[in-house]
Amino acid sequence: MDSISVMNEDISSNPLESQSASTVKARTSLECVTPLPSAIINNDKCQPQAMQQLKYDCNELLCIRDNSATFPLPKSLSNLPIIINEGNQSKIDDNNLTLCDVESILDELTPETFGALATKLRKLKFDCYEKLKEIVELFYSKGVDESGSSCLYARLCKQFNRRTVAVSNARCRESRYGFRGVLVKHCQKQYDNICREEIEYEKQKLESETVLNEKNDRDATKKLEEDFIKIKRRKLKHLLFIGKLYRFGIMWSSVVFEYIEYLLRDKNDEESLEYLHHLLRTTGQKLEDEMIPTVPEKSRLEKYYGQLNTIVKEHKISDHICRMIKDLIELRQVSEL
């Protein structure tokens, strides 16, 4: 009895330690409990097969519902078998695979494989504007960067010329966007970006020219020149691809005329005249054929060649550019015979 009374006095004098000890025992007993039966999780619904109440972390459930990647197993449910409804998940994966498939197919595109690969690409689904826009940007990027195959990519664009997607606005009114319209808009946007890069380069060149001359920094000067060459090459590749798109009936003649007028703004700018030469070499014959029944457009084309002829006669530019323009004019005269 004396030992019991001593223990009671110890407990009454240290109630917190007693409570802590009981909590540790309770936790220990919970860790030894057998795992709960499996549950079926369908998106954000949980249907436990047993009557026990299951507790899930809110962030984990939100991750399960919103995650578009492979379903991650919650850390707190490591011993719980889970079944997922994959209906929406497969749709998302299909969308992701579409763009990946296009990239892999384009990497294999050659004149020999064009027919078979074009057939594969025509089977792809365009069920939203975002996907159509991504495909357009990919075709354009390939057509410009791989200038040697730009004709193939222009032909490929023709295969998708009539593809459209429907987009519903907040008022449930449906609008349709076509491949051709999205492509033309993207081409114009890219050309504007290139022109802005040229303007920015000229500003940087003027600002740094004096400083570089004072420091005699040849490396910095060389880097500026290399940057300008990259811009120049991209602009030329862009114009060549535009010309190929026009030849295959993707680009409108009005767009080509806008480029011609832009390049003729400064009659002494040799770079612009060189770009114009390449553009007319690509599109000239088709422009001539299409403009025959249209008198205003025909006179418009005549005006452009008249300006080029004046540039050659005045000879205010280098002999190299003069010869290029002269050859272009003579080629047109021969084709008209």
Topology:
Blueprint: H1 2-13, H2 15-31, E1 39-42, E2 45-48, H3 58-66, E3 82-84, H4 87-107, H5 114-122, H6 129-145, H7 150-159, E4 164-168, E5 174-178, H8 179-215, H9 218-247, H10 253-263, H11 270-291, H12 295-314, H13 319-336
Parallel strand pairs: 1-3
Antiparallel strand pairs: 1-2, 4-5
List keywords for this structure.
6% strand; Serine Threonine Protein Phosphatase 5, Tetratricopeptide repeat; two-stranded antiparallel sheet; mainly alpha; 4 domains; three-stranded mixed sheet; 337 residues
Main sheet attributes: strand count, strand direction, barrel closure: 3 strands, mixed
Order of helices and strands: HHEEHEHHHHEEHHHHHH
Assembly state (oligomeric): single chain
CATH class of the largest domain: Mainly Alpha
Rg of Cα set:
35 Å
Could you tell me the CATH topology label of the largest domain: Serine Threonine Protein Phosphatase 5, Tetratricopeptide repeat
Strand content bin: 5-15%
What is the number of beta strands? 5
Please identify the structural class as seen in this structure. Answer: mainly alpha
Mean pLDDT: 75
Q: How many individual domains? A: 4
What's the tally of helices?
A: 13
Q: Numbering strands along the chain, what is their spatial order in the largest sheet? A: 2-1-3
**Helix percentage range:** 55-70%
Low-confidence stretches: 15-50, 80-95
Tell me the CATH architecture of the largest domain: Alpha Horseshoe
Report the principal-axis shape: globular
The N- to C-terminal Cα distance equals: 131 Å
